[in-house]
Amino acid sequence: EIVLTQSPGTLSLSPGERATLSCRASQSVSSSYLAWYQQKFGQAPRLLIYGASSRATGIPDRFSGSGSGTDFTLTISRLEPEDFAVYYCQQYDNSLWTFGQGTKVEIK
Amino acid sequence: QVQLQQWGAGLLKPSETLSLTCVVYGVSFSNYYWSWIRQPPGKGLEWIGEINNSGSTIYNPSLKSRVTVSVDTSKHQFSLRLTSVTAADTAVYYCASSRRYSDYHWDYYMDLWGKGTTVTVSS
Questions:
Q1: What is the pLDDT of residues B11-66, one digit of tens each?
Q2: Given A35, A100, A102, which is nearest B109 (Cβ)?
Q3: Is there a contact between B61 and A99 if contact means CB atoms under 8 Å apart?
Q4: Do B46 and A37 touch (CB under 8 A)?
Q5: Given CB 3.0 to 4.6 Å as the disulfide criterion, which of B17, B49, B74, B103 pairs with B69?
Q6: DSSP 3-state assignment of B18?
């Protein structure tokens, strides 16, 4: 089973700042199977990035994904008030979907 | 309009069976795989199982002995059964798409989600 470890656990930033979230896999992940989600309190997750770097429909271009192999990054170039939420990475491998434990982006 | 509507019992006693159903509107049902995901209070997301239009399933090994995911293609719906529940199964349960057929290949991501059903297990 591939384990995804996200860091940091919590990121305290101000609106307008840049957020860099990390997702590290216990073994190599196909980029095609790596996605990022945003979840706000009381809501279902929302797909942000798929295929490691492709933005989902309707996602603003301040969100970008990068990485390959075991190291992936979600970057929010300038935080808007609505971006403060929890972010999860996810992968699929060998008939098993797994999620990272999440990174909370909170207002400083 | 694309919509996943889910329903099922919200309060169970230990040892009972959890049953949830999700109906899909507004997309070609057969062009997707469908999954169940859960989230315990204050915790992260856990994938439970997945099914396709043909009824082929895969399950999280940690739950496999208690889980059944089934599909009714005529009604565009799929269902989850989890037997012998305990307090550890208390969570919000989501239905979601998990693979999408597009341009002659399958994309692997979950872009359609239900709103979630809160299930509490308590004696």
A1: 999 999 999 999 999 999 999 999 999 999 999 999 999 999 999 999 999 999 99
A2: A35
A3: no
A4: no
A5: B49
A6: strand
